[in-house]
Design brief:
The protein is α/β, with parallel strands linked by helices. It is built from 7 helices and 10 strands. A 7-stranded mixed beta sheet has the order 4-3-2-5-6-10-9, with helices on both faces. Strands 1-7-8 form a 3-stranded antiparallel beta sheet. Strand 2, helix 3 and strand 3 form a beta-alpha-beta unit. The longest helix is centred in the first third of the chain and has 27 residues.
Length: about 280
C-alpha cells in the first residue's frame, strides 16, 4: 500500500481563463476517453467542489449521497464497532471524508481517487491513512488485500466499463468481503437534471444508455458520465462474482433543505435520487 505522497496544494489549482463553456451532448465515450476526461475535470473542479459541498460532507462524516444518509445510521458496512481492525478500501474517495470516519472507528482505510487534486484536499484536512492516486479499473493492490470496500458516488458513475471495476474490487477483497457503492439512481436519467418543477417531467428514455458528455470546441470530452438501468447494475454485479444482498433507495429526510445539482427536497420527496448497492464476495 502506498503511503501519502507529499502533494503540494499550490501545485495544481483550478484553471481560470476565458475558455468557452463546454457543449453538453449525448454520445459514445470509451474507457480511455472517459478516464482522461474525468481525471482532468476533477483536477480542475476539486477546489470549487470542496468549497461548495465541504460543509455538507464534513471532514470526517460518511455520507452516502445528497439525501444525507449517514453510515452511522445505515450500517451498510456493518456495525461501527465491528469495523475496528478491518482493512477498508475507499474508491473515488475525493477528500477522503469517509476514510477519515472509518479511521475514527478503528478501521485501516486506504483512500483511492483518480484525481490528484482531490487527494491534495485530503492532505489539507489531515489523516494518517494512505492515499493512492490510481484508476479504479486497475487497482494497484494484491489479491485479497481488504476486508471491505466502499464508494460513495465515486468512480462507478464515471467509467465506461463498470464490470472491470467490479472485477477489480472483487479481486482485492478477501472471501466474504463486502463492497457497498452508491450512484445516481438510474431513474433520474429520464428527467432533466434540475431541482425545481422543471425537473419533474420525463424528457428522455430511461433505456437510452448513451453517455452524457461535455466536450470542448474540438470535440474532446472534458466530462463523461455513464448511465445503466437497475437491471444493468444487477447483471454487472452478478457477472463480476458478487451477490447483491441489498439495494437501498434513501428517502429524502425532512431535515435536509439543501439543493445539490438536480437533488432537492421537491424532487427527493417524489423520486429516488440515489441507489446504494450492497454486494458480498463468496
Amino acid at each position: 500500500m502506498q503511503e501519502p505522497d507529499s502533494f503540494d496544494l499550490e501545485e495544481t489549482g483550478s484553471e481560470t481563463g476565458t475558455e468557452a463553456e463546454p457543449e453538453a451532448t449525448r454520445r459514445a465515450a470509451g474507457v480511455a476517453e472517459s478516464s482522461r476526461a474525468n481525471r482532468g475535470w476533477w483536477d480542475r473542479n476539486a477546489d470549487e467542489y470542496q468549497v461548495e459541498h465541504g460543509t455538507f460532507l464534513g471532514d470526517d462524516r460518511f455520507v452516502w449521497g445528497p439525501e444525507g444518509l449517514d453510515e452511522v445510521e445505515a450500517e451498510l458496512l456493518g456495525p461501527p464497532e465491528d469495523l475496528k481492525g478491518k482493512d477498508v478500501l475507499e474508491i473515488g474517495a475525493g477528500a477522503a471524508q469517509c476514510s477519515r470516519w472509518l479511521a475514527a472507528q478503528g478501521a485501516r482505510p486506504v483512500a483511492l481517487d483518480l484525481s490528484h487534486r482531490q487527494l491534495q484536499h485530503s492532505l489539507r484536512i489531515g489523516g494518517s491513512f494512505p492515499l493512492v492516486c490510481a484508476d479504479a479499473g486497475a487497482l494497484p493492490f494484491a489479491d485479497a488485500s481488504f476486508d471491505l470496500a466502499c464508494s460513495a458516488y465515486g468512480a462507478l458513475p464515471f467509467v465506461a466499463d463498470p464490470r472491470q471495476v467490479l472485477r477489480e474490487v472483487r479481486r482485492v477483497l478477501r472471501p466474504q468481503g463486502r463492497f457497498v457503492f452508491s450512484v445516481t439512481h438510474p431513474i433520474r436519467w429520464a428527467f432533466p437534471d434540475e431541482p425545481g418543477p422543471e425537473g419533474l417531467s420525463v424528457s428522455a428514455s430511461y433505456f437510452d444508455r448513451t453517455p452524457y458528455v461535455e466536450q470542448d470546441e474540438d470535440g474532446h470530452a472534458v466530462y463523461v458520465e455513464h448511465h445503466r438501468t437497475l437491471g444493468d447494475w444487477v447483471r454487472d454485479i452478478a457477472s463480476a462474482g458478487f451477490r447483491l444482498v441489498d439495494l437501498v433507495e434513501p428517502e429524502w429526510p425532512a431535515w435536509n433543505t439543501a439543493e445539490w445539482g438536480g437533488w432537492s427536497p421537491l424532487r427527493g420527496n417524489l423520486l429516488p435520487g440515489t441507489a446504494i448497492f450492497v454486494c458480498e464476495r463468496d
